[in-house]
Amino acid sequence: MKKLIPILALSLLTALPSLARLGETKAECETRYGKPVGTTKSGNPRYLKGGLEIVIAFAKDKAITLYIAKPKDGTTELDLPIVLDSEGRPELSKAEIDALLKANSAGSEWKLGTDDPFGDAYWNRADGKATASYASAKMEISDKAALHKGAGEKPTEEPVDLEGF
User: Which of 11, 84, 106, 162 is the most buried (most CB within 10 A)?
Assistant: First the structure.
């Protein structure tokens, strides 16, 4: 068993190039994963690669959100928003989470936020351009700007009047 651990760690590191990345086009994702094995009810492509299920949300042909989990026995899809049932879904290992964060670092460092009361973990990328979270055996990695207004546009603060709320 002790001999197996270094082999598993090495295989995970060599799998890094095949991990999902924000900002890739649909064509680049198909090159990385092959043809989608299906689509979600929301119309997002669903891939199976390296023992992981990956659902990618696109805006303007760029990957803006990645949903990654180990497939659940009997599961036919991981939909958006991710279904909250984690029963029977295997947890991602710390090494798998670290590899996914590294693949989406864009040369920046991820900063772990404080765990929230629900036990979720979340990260902010030091360049401020992406966030990640892990909860209920599922990882979500998102492009902050694209989520607010579409790929390539910056979020804007709109004044909010909450007087008398």
Answer: 106
What does the alpha-carbon distance between residue 10 and residue 89 come to, in Å, rounded to a whole number? Answer: 24
Give percent helix, percent strand, percent coil of the chain, each to the nearest 5.
25, 25, 50
> What distance in Å separates the CA atoms of residue 18 and residue 30, rounded to the nearest whole number?
11
State the burial class of residue 119 (Cβ atoms within 10 Å of its Cβ: 0-12, 13-18, 19+): exposed
CA–CA separation, 142 and 56 (whole Å): 10
Whether residue 24 contacts residue 32, with contact meaning beta carbons closer than 8 Å, is answered with yes
pLDDT in tens, 3-34: 544 444 444 444 444 577 999 999 999 999 89
Domain ranges of the chain: 4-149
In this prediction the pTM is 0.73
